[in-house]
Amino acid sequence: MSSFASRLRIAVVMLVVALAIPVIALASGTSTAKEKSLYVRLGGKKGITAVVNDFVTRINGDTRVNSFFAATVADPARLAKFKTHLVEQLCQASGGPCKYTGKDMKTAHAGMKITTDNFNAVVEDLTGALDKFKVGVNEKNQLLGVLSPMKADIAGGDE
Ligand code: HEM
Q: What is the mean pLDDT of the chain?
């Protein structure tokens, strides 16, 4: 075979393989394009609302952080708004059909002097709520992966 013919044959084989990979991936259901969004895997708005309600109950019972939320839980309208904003935020961050209408994280937590320990305590309370509703380890890690970069805007009280 001439070297041109053998190079052509290699090119054709490579093209067939390149075309076959996405077809095989789609057919076997392993394509990320087919994977359900994190929002759906968290149980949609209903699942997220259940997690947020339990999360806020945990925060309120957590002596490491509940003093920050005393004024919030004492005012039912303020508490309801806080929960709505948390649901919207988690819904939007997980790819759901919501728009977060609260303040940006820096503005919302300005002047609170939240420390890394406070931040970690709140993350632990959220993890407890996710565990209670048997949210899978992948979903949990994915959600915490979206929230942890917010620490820079939330916890500025370490000095
Ligand atoms: C990943 C961590 C956190 C997330 C995603 C988060 C998210 C939020 C959101 C969405 C709001 C509502 C903002 C608005 O209504 O405009 C908020 C408010 C607030 N957050 Fe955080 N937060 C986090 C960590 C913390 C920590 C560690 C503390 C204190 C220990 C804290 C204390 C507060 C307080 C006191 C408010 C005001 C509640 C109110 O409206 O009465 N947050 N946070």
A: 89
Q: Is residue 159's pLDDT more than 60?
A: yes
Q: Is 48 in the pocket of ligand 1 (CB under 6 A)?
A: no
Fold of 38-154: Globin-like (1.10.490)
- Please check whether residue 51 is in contact with residue 133, taking contact to mean a CB–CB distance below 8 angstroms: yes
12 Cα: distance to centroid of ligand 1 (angstroms): 57
Cα(78)–Cα(18) distance, integer angstroms: 55
d(CA 128, CA 59): 10
User: If you take atom 43 of ligand 1, which residue's CA is the nearest one?
Assistant: 108
Structure token digits, residue 62: 């957590």
DSSP 18-55: HHHHHHHHHHTT--GGGSPPHHHHTTHHHHHHHHHHHH
For residue 34, the model assigns a pLDDT of 67
Enter the pTM of the model: 0.83
Identify residue 72 by its one-letter amino acid code. Answer: T
